[in-house]
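Objective 1.3, modelling of assemblies. Example input:
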Amino acid sequence: MRLLKTAALGVLFGLVQGSLEIAWSLGYSPPDILLLVVLWFSMNRRASEALLIGFLGGLVLDSVAPLHIVGVQSLCKVVVAYLPEWAFYILLPETTLTGFLLVGAGTVVQQIILLTIVQTLKPGGVWGGGALIETLWLLFANLAAWSILVFWRFGSTEGKETIK
Amino acid sequence: MAKRVEKFPQVVYRKHTQTLSPHPSPWVRKPGRHLPEFAFFVILSFVAMAVDVQYGFGWLNGLAGKLAAPVVYSVDRILFPLARSVAFVRETWDAKKENAALREELDRARRDLHYYESEFHKNLRYRELLNLKAEVAPEAVAAQVLRYQDSAAQRAIVLRAGEAEGLEVGQPVLGESGQLLGRISRIDRRFSTVVLLTDPSCRAGVAVESTQAQGILYNRNGQLFVSVDRAEEVREGDRLVTSHLSDLFPEGLLVGRIVGPAGDKETDPLVAAHLGLMKSYRVEPVFPNEKWGSAREVLCLPAYRSRPVAPDKGS
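Predicted structure (tokens):
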């Protein structure tokens, strides 16, 4: 049951993100809500749930959004979902900055994977100033959305215990 | 031991409650716990990509499109007012920049227009001078005005042309509309001075064009007057030209028009006693007197040499 709920959540956020990418009319590209959700789940729930949400959400997102190769966003989101686990290896302490670091790193890693695969599978040049501006914008939008959505969870140390 | 612990950075762990997360924080889990799942999903993603590239996911795209349609519509409804506001702000900003650019362009256009108008008038003046030159004397020389001196003691213009340009003392100088301005009184290598008809020292023999009534042109305070025999019929508007009796100017150069009789205090200052034989009239130059200062080019006619007086056969 829990697995189904998580899968439904992934599909839902994939639909929302895909719809945002279609209907976004505020310039550049929308913030990647799916990426933020995946990161949040990975940092606060099981990584396996984040992986499932990322994979299914990415699959739906690729199917909804036009001109996407199905599976690219899944791969991106799966990698991003596992980022906090990798962060554990380098002993990244959980501070206010951690979330922002992970969102920034996730955005950049996702863009690198996305653009590399698209460049490989589709004709035409992808890399360049346009890709850089798009990445920077996405970075800004994701960090801003992260601040708005989940900053309160990291802003206060209340409810946290310190091991000395 | 406690001191050793303090050397390490303080690590803060989240206190997980049931409402927030029923699972332990990922920071305290064993590393690599979910690595197989990660690898599985990565491989699955690559498989999906391979299938899409090879066969396509038409059915999935169609299904997702149908599912997403209401969401897209809702998102669009939510974002539309915001997008319009953003577009309005952006258009206003663009309009502001465009406005600034247009203003700059307008200023530049105005400057250009001013320049072209100036060139146009200069061209007109040159054309007029050229026509006049062709009419009056082909060998006339056009010269630029360097300075206009308008004082009670002296009214003259300085030309940016002198001996080097072939000018000499005594050349009559014409302005726009063929108006006689004066004659060259002093010449240098590169400059020359023209004494104007309005200069206190200037007097000239003139004639009323229609009746050939002879008179003497004089001036008072920069205003031109003509003194004519009282018996002659002079009408307002009559053209006044240089007389054939003049020793300074050739015959027929336009001086001005009669605009009316002169006042009692506007008589010829060099005539000691007015016996009622002459009558003075006010003369208005064809090229208005007040515009002489704005003349930029003038035409210098060949120097006039009065005919030698025939020797008396009896002497």
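The first helix of chain B runs from residue 2 to 7.
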